[in-house]
Amino acid sequence: MQTTDDVKSELSAMSFEEILKLQNQVGTKVYNEVAYGSSKSRAAGRKKRLNKNRPMEISAKRRAPFLRQVVSVKKPKLKKTKTNTPHKEDLKFLLKKMDNQERARKSREEQRERELQFKRERRERANQGARPFFLKSSDKKKLELADKYEELKKSGKLETFLSKKRKRNAGKDRRKLPRQLQNERFQ
User: Fold this and answer.
1) What angle do CA 117, 126, 146 make, to 5 degrees?
2) Is the pTM of the predicted complex or chain greater than 0.85?
């Protein structure tokens, strides 16, 4: 049986046309295995991880693949943990944090969409020959508040939001009052 070095030396002596004919006769897969070595031998040359939990070492010289293989990690669920463990408190905190991050991401996207809408309107007006308008930050905040109230009204949470806001404002007002008035007012 010939070794890969013998096969490579024979292939180097052949012309390009002869190599193509050989590749068509035998098949591309078989030709590549004979010419360059089998895929199993190449796979054996790869390094294995010492620990399955460690990340795979990849050369930085090659670009990362567009669609990477993502390995799923088992995540402990909140319902399965026992009631009085500190681990459950950590999980609750993380869950709340993730919800807040998601809410913040959505609000940033909505803000970006609003900005794009203003820019589109500005461009349309400029194309029609009108002077462009630029909103002040206070006007932008008023429009954001109006949108927020509309969303709360649709979801039916407007009353609870307003009552909480009233309580907050009352607390702020109470702190601003002088001590004598506070004592007289709440007795």
Assistant:
1) 30
2) no
